[in-house]
């Protein structure tokens, strides 16, 4: 159990700034998930915490102790961390219990055996202690790897895509397991994943990264509902950003004009150009008034009919998805109302790119 502190942490690989001045305070006992597009720096940050790599600048502290900085570097083995990778790295010639005991040689035998027993019980594998890794399923091997890390009672547990090799059902089961173990141990956990749903389901805090920067650090719901930047809005939960005009703003609410209609939504934008950040749940089919649109296509997904719509009065928007109870034929006409969204400031920028369907897309 230890807090993590990053102070202007940077790491460069040639031309690539893999970490670009990352600063954050992660309270002890947090379950932190790092999210972001491929190459944004998640693994680089995890490796810095682990001590597998040195920063070029800035400081990193674990439990209030500086472990990396201009004049200090604590090696991985002295940081009190556990790591679980997507490759479980178990010794094939050792039993489950021996694999878990492997890193505990410094302890007296009775203490070692007690730790192994406790760790096996925590991950629900007590009955399989004598088996070899090849006699286990993928999920069971993952549990052994987790038990091995837990047995050392780490201050911080680092999980690098730990579920990547498991099928969907096992992933869900292991996620629940991580959450339970986190609650039981109070261990600070840092979880790197490509899967947003996974991150949202388990984490107390989500760190969204982009091009080496920490764009937002906040609880899952806040990242979803109050994105700190257009990048976060687009990256999380199939979010979209629509160019709007902010007519007025006060007390955390913005009056916006969209497609000739005005509405008031939460946001941080001053009057002028804005981005309206929306998720599919923010759009609803309306029988009365709303923005007129045409159905481009409709498909069945996750129990919904998802219609892709082109809006008459939003020429700068390529198409937006709308959840419907019933299928809507291509070319049919609908009206759509906004049920939510968040408004961010928009800097006047760059020429707009052409989308594949020939409509302009917001930059
Ligand atoms: N050892 C290295 N040498 C050169 N470039 C590196 C090295 N390690 C990472 N990079 C670069 O640094 C950037 C960040 O990489 P990193 O592995 O941290 O990204 P990531 O967010 O974990 O990506 P992914 O989701 O694809 O695993 C990338 O552009 C990557 O190519």
From TrEMBL:
Residues 4-236 form the ABC transporter domain. Keywords: ATP-binding, Nucleotide-binding, Transport. GO terms for molecular function: ATP binding. The keyword Nucleotide-binding applies. This is ABC transporter ATP-binding protein. The lineage of its organism: Bacteria, Pseudomonadati, Pseudomonadota, Alphaproteobacteria, Rhodobacterales.
């Amino acid at each position: 159990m230890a807090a993590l502190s990053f102070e202007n942490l940077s790491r460069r690989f040639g031309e690539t700034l893999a970490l670009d001045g990352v600063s954050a305070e992660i309270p002890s006992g947090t379950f932190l998930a790092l999210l972001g597009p491929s190459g944004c720096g998640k693994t680089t940050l995890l490796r810095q915490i682990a001590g597998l790599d040195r920063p070029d600048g800035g400081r990193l502290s674990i439990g209030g102790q500086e472990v990396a900085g201009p004049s200090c570097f604590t090696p991985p083995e002295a940081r009190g961390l556990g790591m679980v990778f997507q490759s479980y790295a178990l010794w094939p010639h050792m039993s489950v219990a021996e694999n878990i005991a492997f890193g505990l040689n410094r302890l007296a035998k009775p203490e070692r055996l007690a730790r192994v027993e406790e760790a096996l019980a925590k991950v629900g594998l007590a009955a399989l202690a004598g088996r070899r890794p090849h006699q286990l399923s993928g999920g069971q091997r993952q549990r052994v790897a987790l038990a091995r890390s837990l047995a050392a009672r780490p201050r911080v547990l680092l999980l690098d895509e730990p579920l990547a090799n498991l099928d969907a059902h096992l992933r869900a089961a292991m996620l629940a397991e991580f959450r339970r173990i986190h609650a039981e141990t109070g261990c600070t956990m840092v979880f790197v994943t490509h899967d947003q749903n996974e991150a949202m389901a388990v984490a107390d805090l989500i760190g969204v990264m982009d091009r080496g920067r920490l764009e937002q650090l906040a609880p899952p719901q806040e990242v979803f509902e109050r994105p700190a930047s257009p990048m976060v809005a687009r990256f999380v939960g199939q979010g979209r950003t629509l160019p709007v005009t902010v007519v007025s703003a006060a007390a955390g609410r913005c009056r916006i004009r969209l497609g000739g209609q005005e509405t008031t939504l939460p946001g941080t934008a001053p009057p002028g150009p804005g981005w309206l950040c929306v998720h599919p749940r923010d759009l609803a089919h309306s029988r009365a008034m709303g923005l007129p649109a045409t159905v481009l296509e409709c498909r069945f997904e996750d129990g919904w009919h998802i219609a892709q719509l082109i809006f008459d009065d939003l020429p700068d928007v390529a198409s937006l998805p709308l959840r419907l109870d019933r299928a809507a034929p291509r070319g049919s006409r609908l009206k759509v109302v906004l049920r939510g969204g968040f408004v961010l400031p928009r800097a006047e920028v760059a020429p707009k790119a052409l989308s594949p369907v020939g409509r302009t897309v917001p930059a």
